[in-house]
Amino acid sequence: MKLILTSAALAGVGAVALYLTQGGSNAGAVQNPTVTVAQSAVPSKGGELYQSFCAGCHGTNLEGQANWRERGPDGRLPAPPHDETGHTWHHDRATLFNLTKYGVAEMIGDPDYPTDMPGFLGVLNDQEINEVLDYIQSQWSDEIRLPYEARQAGG
Question: Of 15, 86, 108, 132, which alpha carbon lies 20 to 30 A from 8's?
Fold first, then answer.
């Protein structure tokens, strides 16, 4: 059963990736999302935004919800961690941006997809979404963050 649930979760991530690469309605909406952490107060502003809009599900310390890889009885996956124990750092910045802005169901074009992740379009502007992502990224160790940034820059 665990293998089936894991496969289903991976299929969902794969569907999002395929949707983005095949030009879905919101795919490519962000041409140049911020890739590196700004050398300003952005991480602290992003931290405030994260605590206000994300921490309720993803945890005040980016720890996510318990059993985040296992679907609940309602078919929904708990919120994953955004720290190094999760998979956030496996995704490119444009995918993370679009997941935050539009939500999973909108991105994959399936309004019935079982998810608690809302889109923040109309709630956070593009700069604020990037500030939240900068904050999350700033919390990763150099061992995770530096290779991530290099991948985003094409290196």
Answer: 132
Residue 27 pLDDT greater than 70, yes or no: no
Q: Rounded distance, CA 85 to CA 141, Å?
A: 11
3-state secondary structure of 89: helix
Domain count, the chain: 1
* pTM of the model as a whole: 0.74
Q: In angstroms, rounded to a whole number, what is the distance separating the alpha carbons of residues 63 and 55?
A: 9
Instruction: For residue 29, give the CATH number of its domain.
Output: 1.10.760.10
**C-alpha separations of 82 from 55, 61, 77, 79, 91 in Å:** 10, 9, 14, 9, 11
